Amino acid sequence: MAGGEVQLVDLVKRFGDFTAVDGINLRVPPGEFFSLLGPSGCGKTTTLRMIAGFERPTEGQILLDGVDMAGTPPHKRNVNTVFQNYALFPHLTVEKNVAFGLKYQHLSKAEQARRVGRALELVRLTGFEKRRPNQLSGGQQQRVALARALILNPAVLLLDEPLGALDAKLRKALQIELKTIQEEVGITFIYVTHDQEEALTMSDRIAVMSNGRVEQVGPPKEVYEEPATAYVADFLGVSNLMNATAEGPAPGGCRVRHGDFELVAGQGEEDARGPVKLCIRPERVELEPGDATGPNRIPGMVERVVYVGSVLHVLVNLAPGDKIQVWIQNEGQGATWAQGSPVKVHFPVASLRVLPEGEISEEGFAAAAAAR
């Protein structure tokens, strides 16, 4: 469907003295699956509600295909919303729930039946027309809510944590289905979630939010592999973050000092000097025997090995005092590293990133941990 571009310009929402959304600027092109990702209280749902028209912005613009909709009521915007609780009518059949929004469009019975059939086909619920919501599973109810929203052919579909009430296995299955449906209908999806896996799995681009602001926007791989701030690195996935002192450019990157040890970081701010954060993902860290030698290595001791199925999580205490995680693929040969083993921890130059020192508040760490 043509159209569906959304632009947020200097968008602000205040509730009394509290600023829930603090000057957001975003552009979502037509047909994109765009996710707003962040912990509870970061402003993502408030932003979605302003796009839907359920909240009016204090300042700024909400442009839909170039037209400012900030003062337009919800029913006059060409957008529709799927909520976490689905909001299905328990006394109506699936067919009548899906068709509910069409009663104001003065369609013939034949056209209405065709539209309902097509919507149910999209969400793979053909044959469920006569059932009521209490006869459906949670995943099927979610699909009915999605069909009810899609049948009105909105330019933009807004989704407020629609998979949040489902169990983990079903949620994973529906992540793939939801992306497939979005690609098939070709309309803009704006998806709110605190679940990083959902955002990474489905999104064309992600905006990571904190305290009413956007910390970083980009494709999933870019945001995961190249976090712009310590907050993004810690919130999206799991990162080892260490305090260090940058000493400027070096062959291959930036020379940094962590405790008594010199390292070279090949990613991030190569020209940095002074206090910085070092960031590396657990799956990129390499463990070696305690007598191993070479650059970018720090001695440590294994504190614990946690078996989590496909991966072994190894917690290591480094000589400078940090505790880091190392993830090792489980190849079925048993644990190589025993508790108390001395090791050398290798930080590959290409995987080690220098970030601005910007401290993450205790609230930020707590929010990131809770979301994980």
Structure characterization notes:
There is one protein chain. The two termini are 35 Å apart. The strands form four sheets. Strands 6-7-8-3-9-10 form a six-stranded mixed β-sheet, with helices on both faces. Strands 13-12-11-15-21-14 form a six-stranded mixed β-sheet. A five-stranded antiparallel β-sheet has the order 16-20-17-18-19, with no helix packed on it. The chain has helices spanning 44-52, 94-99, 109-122, 138-150, 168-185, 196-202, 220-225, 230-235, 362-371; strands spanning 6-15, 18-28, 33-37, 59-64, 67-68, 79-82, 156-160, 188-193, 205-210, 213-218, 240-250, 253-258, 261-265, 267-268, 273-280, 286-289, 297-307, 311-318, 323-329, 342-346, 353-356. The protein is elongated and about 80 Å long. It is α+β, with helices and mostly antiparallel strands. The protein is built from nine helices and 21 strands.
